[in-house]
Amino acid sequence: MKHLFLFSTTRLRISRAYLLPFIVVFLQGCSSTSTIPSNHSQHVWTLTYIKATENQQANLQLYIEKNWFVMDSIAVAQKLLGQYELYENKNPENKDWDFIVAVEYLTPKGYDDIASAFEAIRAKHTVVKINGLGMKELGKVVKAETVVKKRYQGI
To answer: Are 101 and 84 in contact (CB under 8 A)?
Structure first.
């Protein structure tokens, strides 16, 4: 009768030990608190609209990733920022902008509250040019807005 079981009792105990962390993570993912979006009324987002110079969209995106987002990642690690995102314009009828850089600030005053700390990050950063081109050659900021993000689920 022992041979009807696919696992020995020893293997089964080890398997349970390995499964426990996966079960815990799964249950946390299923918990109601993690699926309910939270609105942080104190957080603000800055949306920076950027227009690439002609035929420089790919280089501009790379520039943003290797410069802006490198500094933003340091700011996130220092808890100066919440997160940052890149949106690409896919509307062929709207040529006003190519990218939006969205940055979440953890306080209502946004950049003003972290300006000195972020400028210290910027001072330590070495600008990475893309194919010998800097921001001035790759594109320009055409608009910036500050917004509050509201999250909804299943209205």
So the answer is: yes
